[in-house]
Amino acid sequence: MGKIISEMSLEELWQLFPIFLTEHKAFWKDWYVQEETFLKSILVQTARINHIGSTAIPSIWAKPIIDILVEIPKECSVLTRSY
Fold it and tell me: Whole-model pTM?
């Protein structure tokens, strides 16, 4: 049986979870819009949903991971909907 993640060295973690940068891809915005639509459908109340991070900036290279910030009002219960 292999090691658990907390026992792995940094080198082992880099091999298991490599991070690489790529030129900006126009479809990243479409990916964000799809996720934003999904989040709005399951979260009853949100203050804002934003595309953040390097994939939101067209002029730079980025990790191909879409970062999303969801702001939920303090008075809102996230568990207001059953799935």
Answer: 0.73
